[in-house]
Each structure stands twice: as C-alpha cells, then as structure tokens.
C-alpha cells in the first residue's frame, strides 16, 4: 500500500492564490545566512545535514538564481527571517514538483504554507508545466494546503 498522497494542478485559472508581498524567490548566495538560520529550527546545523533532501553545502549550486540547478526556492520572509519555505524541483518537461514545504514552528497556522505553495504553483504554471506535490498520506495539514490552492489528488 502506498503511503503517499499526490496532487497536481495544470490550469492557472484553477489556482487559488494566497498572495503575500512577503513571498519571494530566494537567492541562495545572498540569502544563505537566512537559510542557515531557518534550517537550524529543524535540527540542521552542519553543511551536510539534510532537510527534505536539501543541504547547505549544495544549496547555492542546486537552487541557483539562473535556473542552472535542480530548482528554485521561495520563501515568506519577514524582518530578514524566513517564516515559510517551498522548493520547486525541475523534474520533467511536463511537470515540476513543489517540495520541501515547511513553516517555522513558531509561525504555523497563519496561512504561510498556502502563500509559498501558491506562489510556487503560479511560477510552475506560468512556465508551462503542471505543478505536482507529494506528501505522506497522514499529513492532513499539507493535504489541506494542496486542496486550498486548487490542486487535485491524482495517482501517478
């Protein structure tokens, strides 16, 4: 039995945006200290510790602003602190995955994950791809975020 829940959106007209002026793409070079501080909230303290497959040693190369890496990172940033994060992984010509979605433990329940996920999904859809996302079946909070921004369950 598969313990994953998959959702996707293919039509920008179905996307429900939870816009915030505080959501933006990260520049791993310029925002490295912000990323380092954010990751520390999740027990990531060395360059090789991994957070949802992301480590500080490779983040500048893998999430480069020029798109030469595996994807991009976006975040809700307030007062020079990341409060919520989402990654976009360039996985195929047809679909890009929204991944590594999280919100700082002190800031949950405020809609920040919806804001970063809708920002990421809009970027993916405007790039001509479907936005897909996978989470554990038991992760009702993330499943709710996917549904609230307009993603629909599918079976890969």
Topology of this structure?
Elements: E1 4-9, E2 23-25, H1 32-40, H2 59-62, E3 71-78, E4 81-89, E5 95-103, H3 112-126, E6 130-136, H4 140-148, E7 152-153
Parallel strand pairs: 5-6
Antiparallel strand pairs: 1-6, 1-7, 2-3, 3-4, 4-5
Please summarize the sheet with the most strands: 7 strands, mixed
Give the CA-CA distance, first to last residue: 14 Å
Structural class: alpha+beta
What top-tier CATH class fits best?
A: Alpha Beta
- Tell me the overall shape: globular
How would you characterize the overall build of this protein?
- There is one protein chain.
- The protein has 156 residues and is α+β, with helices and mostly antiparallel strands.
- The chain has one domain: Aminopeptidase (3-Layer(aba) Sandwich).
- It is built from four helices and seven strands; from the N terminus they run E-E-H-H-E-E-E-H-E-H-E.
- It has helices at 32-40, 59-62, 112-126, 140-148, and strands at 4-9, 23-25, 71-78, 81-89, 95-103, 130-136, 152-153.
- Strands 2-3-4-5-6-1-7 form a seven-stranded mixed beta sheet, sandwiched between helices.
- Strand 5 (95-103), helix 3 and strand 6 (130-136) form a beta-alpha-beta unit.
- The protein is globular.
- The mean pLDDT is 95.
